[in-house]
Amino acid sequence: MSGFAALVGRDLRLVWRRPGDVAVVLAFFVVATTLFPLGIGPEANVLARIAAGVLWCAALFSALLSLDRLFAADFEDGTLDLLLLAPWPLELAALAKCCAHWIVTGLPLAALAPVLGVAFGLGPEVLQALAVTLLVGTPTLSLIGGLAAALTLGARKSGALLALLALPLCVPTLIFGAGAIEALATGGDFGAHLAVLAALALVALATTPWAIAAALRQAGE
Amino acid sequence: MADLHFLANPARYRRFSQRVLPGLSIATVLMLAVGLYLALIQSPPDYQQGDTVRIMFVHVPSAWLGMAGYALLAGLGASLLVWRHPLAALMARAAAPVGASFTAICLLTGALWGRPMWGAYWVWDARLTSMLLLFFLYLGHIALSRAYDEPERGDRAAAILALIGVINLPIIKFSVDWWNTLHQPASVARLGGPSIHPSILLPLLWMAVTMFLLFVLLVMLRTDTEIDRRRLDNAEAQA
């Protein structure tokens, strides 16, 4: 477990020393979200209607945007070779990398989304639900995105390819994340949606580390 | 499984395919001729859908083969990762565009049927959407397997993707079903027997067998091409 904490700590320190990388992702989230009212028009009821879907999609794109460097730097400077050689399960290392990614993108996105939600005219209850669904849903995005990042390590045009691989796999999370908020607004069962969202996160937690480790091994060969 | 392992060697597979392909090609063409006669001329128009029901004879088998094709990719991916069968990689490379084409045919014929029947080429219905997402998964597989300078890396990455994709397909299907439902429920394979009249069911099953043969034929032909291409690349690399 100390190795896990050390790896997460290392990634967090790397981000802390270059905070610009995270700031760019959050700035993209804000700018992309701002474009929707400009494109659709400022009617308050329309914006409130689409806010949950827009914020969820923008969060999904932002999380993917930051992923193509998740393993690339370690791949280039040889850290990945040491992780492969280490007498320590690569699956845990993969999980640690995704965990660090979630702390530096998922958490800030969940914190920032309610602020943007205010601009879309959402009520306090919906804002709270938005933050909760993003907190529960973004770990899945980090894990699936981590898999896509590992699969595209060293590929040509890896950025666009990563999105093509990850987006269809993220559809269930998007449906239940945005659906939970929709359910809250229309008197549906918010708790059931949230439970499925959590279940998706647990399935991703149980399956993706193995696949990421397999992908990293074949990248290291 | 012993028989399938026997075919894992590309040279042995090559001898097998050369024996099978001529007969398979002739059978497919003959079956297709009879099937098109049954589907387009001999079978009666539906009392509600009229002649548009004939689209179904292509649409439904394409949907089945589109889904079966992804299962094939996952099986080939597993046999590449577990046994390192060299043929599995080449066959997956050959099968992915074929499966994607059948999925695309399913979507296109569905759109042509939907316009007169539902009044729209496309509706955001659960079954249509999950077919579209299956098509996207195929695109990801095709793009990933061809994204590397060393083809072997692309093969293995795509194999992992196919396995993860096949785990996720039921989850995607379930969540899209939850999201919206308009498409009619399955009417061939269900408890209590099919709800389709025999005069339409027979040509449908005939076309299903025919298109299955066509799928196998295309995959085998393309696998032969992939074997040649890989040999050529290796020869070029050595020269």
Provide an overview of this structure.
The complex is a heterodimer of chains A (221) and B (239). By secondary structure, chain A is mainly α. Chain A has helices at 2-17, 20-40, 44-65, 72-77, 79-85, 90-119, 124-151, 158-186, 190-220. Chain A has one domain (2-220). Chain A is built from 9 helices and no strands. Chain A is elongated. Chain B has helices at residues 2-6, 10-42, 56-83, 86-118, 126-145, 151-179, 198-238. Chain B is an all-alpha fold and 239 residues long. Chain B has a domain at 27-47 and 69-182 and 197-228. Chain A binds chain B through residues 147, 151-152, 154-158, 161, 164-165, 167-169, 171-172, 175-176, 179, 196, 200, 203, 207-208, 211, 214-215, 218-219, and chain B through 81, 133, 136-137, 139-140, 143-144, 147-149, 153-154, 156-157, 160-161, 163-165, 167-168, 171-172, 174-176, 178-179.
Present the secondary structure layout:
The complex is a heterodimer of chains A (221) and B (239).
Chain A: H1 2-17, H2 20-40, H3 44-65, H4 72-77, H5 79-85, H6 90-119, H7 124-151, H8 158-186, H9 190-220
Chain B: H1 2-6, H2 10-42, H3 56-83, H4 86-118, H5 126-145, H6 151-179, H7 198-238
Helix pairs in contact in B: 2-7, 3-4, 3-5, 3-6, 3-7, 4-5, 4-6, 4-7, 5-6
Features of the shown structure:
heterodimer, A: 221 residues, mainly alpha, B: 239 residues, 7 helices, globular
Mean pLDDT of chain A: 90
* β-sheet strand percentage of chain A: under 5%
Helix content of chain B: over 70%
Shape of chain A: elongated
Quick one: overall form of chain B?
globular
Number of domain modules of chain A: 1
**Parts with pLDDT < 50 across at least 5 consecutive residues of chain A:** none
Q: So how many helices of chain A?
A: 9
Largest sheet of chain B: none
| Total DSSP E strands of chain B | 0
Rounded to the nearest angstrom, the distance between the terminal CA atoms of chain B is 38 Å
Name the average pLDDT of chain B: 86
Structural category of chain A = mainly alpha
SSE order of chain A, one letter for each helix or strand: HHHHHHHHH
Gyration radius from CA atoms of chain A, angstroms = 18 Å
Rg estimate of chain B, integer Å:
20 Å
Largest β-sheet summary of chain A: none
- Helix tally of chain B? 7
